[in-house]
Design brief:
144 residues, mainly alpha
């Protein structure tokens, strides 16, 4: 087979395989990184399991590039359309968690907004900024 006929694209079934490998690497990384009692081999493999982050980032970028390529013929329209679609999907998922986690934290666990945002700040502005993902380390939940 000549080199020009080789298809280097990643098929959807192949992305599932890569995701499965990344999930297994992530589990191994989180389960065995801090436990020296499991031996040196488990520790080295757990450290190598950090590759899961790179695999997920690669697949996300590849998927975005593939969707840019196939969605629309006009490049400017395609980029705008795909980015809007991805931002909407991200924020819908983010807001779903945000609007459950913040009230649970405030009403069930007794952590008011003042604790997260500070005493002498505009709470409404900070809440809206947090809702848009712009609060950085002053967020209600800094891990997101």
């Amino acid at each position: 087979m000549s080199a020009s006929k080789i298809d280097y694209s990643i098929k959807p079934d192949e992305t599932w395989i890569i995701k499965a490998i990344a999930i297994m690497a992530m589990l191994f990384h989180h389960l065995f990184l801090v436990g020296p009692e499991y031996g040196q081999v488990a520790y080295v493999l757990a450290r190598a399991g950090k590759i899961c982050v790179a695999l997920f980032v690669f697949l996300s970028g590849y998927g975005m590039a593939a969707s840019f390529h196939k969605d629309m013929p006009s490049k400017v329209k395609a980029h705008f359309f795909v980015l809007c679609k991805r931002y909407a999907k991200f924020f819908i998922n983010y807001w779903f968690v945000f609007f459950i986690a913040v009230p649970v934290g405030v009403f069930c666990f007794g952590r008011p907004l003042e604790v997260a945002y500070g005493e002498n700040v505009n709470l409404v502005r900070s809440f809206i900024s947090d809702m848009l993902g712009q609060q950085n380390y002053n967020s209600y939940n800094i891990t997101w």
